[in-house]
Amino acid sequence: MALQKSDFDVYTVRPKKAVRNAEGLRVVEEFSDQEWTDAKANADAIIANQGKERKNAIRRERSALLSETDYAVLPDSTLSSDDLAKLKTWRQQLRDLPSTKSDDKADEITIPNCPVASLGITVVQIPVEGSA
User: Fold this and answer.
1) Which of 11, 26, 43, 59 is the most exposed place for a label (fewest CB within 10 A)?
2) Distance between CA atoms of 126 and 106, rounded to whole angstroms?
3) Strand, coil or helix: what is 117?
4) 29 DSSP β-pair partners
5) What is the distance between the alpha carbons of residues 31 and 129, in angstroms, rounded to a whole number?
6) Is 7 helix (H, G, I), strand (E, B) or coil?
7) Distance between CA 90 and CA 117 in Å, rounded?
8) What is the pLDDT of residue 13?
9) How far apart are CA 26 and CA 20, in angstroms?
10) pLDDT block averages, 10 residues each, the chain of length 132
């Protein structure tokens, strides 16, 4: 489930901050109207960009998986032709990620598992922001 305004207290409660008063003592003050507006704008930006951020995280994981398996598709690979074909298909699926979904559908993107068990590749699924 994607992040929503209800996930941010800043929309319902004026935040507080710890500051030093004129005597140098730490006191707690409420945000000014401008600071509160800025905090809400920051939360809005997080909500608006969550799909893009998720896709970037998926790209980083995808790139790591491709790098981790580069050696296995070299001409001197010891994989069987069947495993090599499966690996090449999987690597193409990785390359197609995350362009298969728009930013607003980014939480539906999953990274496919490596079909060649002998490589010992562990796929880490990127968690969806706001999910439990």
Assistant:
1) 26
2) 11
3) helix
4) 17
5) 26
6) helix
7) 12
8) 93
9) 4
10) 86 94 94 96 92 90 94 93 95 89 83 91 79 49
Domain ranges of the chain: 5-119
Q: Tell me, what amino acid is at 110? A: T
Q: What are 104's two structure tokens?
A: 């607003």
Query: Residue 130's pLDDT is what?
Result: 56
* pTM, entire model: 0.70
Looking at residue 101, the DSSP 8-state letter turns out to be S
Which of 120, 53, 117, 111 is CA-nearest to residue 83? Answer: 117
Nearest to 55 by CA among 91, 95, 112, 103: 103
**Residue carrying the six token digits 């909500």:** 47
Distances (CA, A) of 59 to 54, 55, 111: 9, 6, 10
